[in-house]
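Hi F.,

I've been meaning to write this up properly since the lab meeting, where we talked about keeping a consistent format for the predictions we share between groups. The idea is simple: the sequence comes first, exactly as it goes in, then the structure tokens exactly as they come out, then a line or two of notes. No screenshots and no reformatting. I'm using this chain as the first example so we have something concrete to point to.
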Amino acid sequence: MDKTYLKNAAIVSVFDYKDFEKIHLADVLTGSVIEDETLRFRAFQQIVTSKIVTRHIKGEKSEVITHSGSCYVIDDNPEFFELTLAEFVVMRTGAYSPKRIIEMRDILKQLNKNQH
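Output, unedited:
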């Protein structure tokens, strides 16, 4: 199976709310491409995968298989983030990192706090 190798990888848990209840929708992988045997991505491209199906730890690396059947190789110490569905949509369309999305969330919270 051809693989895509990522650096600065993060696993993002996407949540939504229904009737004030937090609902887990999916975990996805994001990171910067350093090598791509599938020839789908260019080097240094920031990507967001489809839903993670499995993660296998192999030494200091992990292989992540997604819903679309793709295989990604990451260092075994990815960052973990939680985003709302709306934040995830912004991250995916704007190619923002999850860390940047959380920074923007905090800025908006501070602005709203200062207006009240």
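Notes:
Residues 98-115 form the longest helix (18 residues).
DSSP finds two helices and six strands in the chain.

If this format works for you, I'll send the rest the same way.

G.
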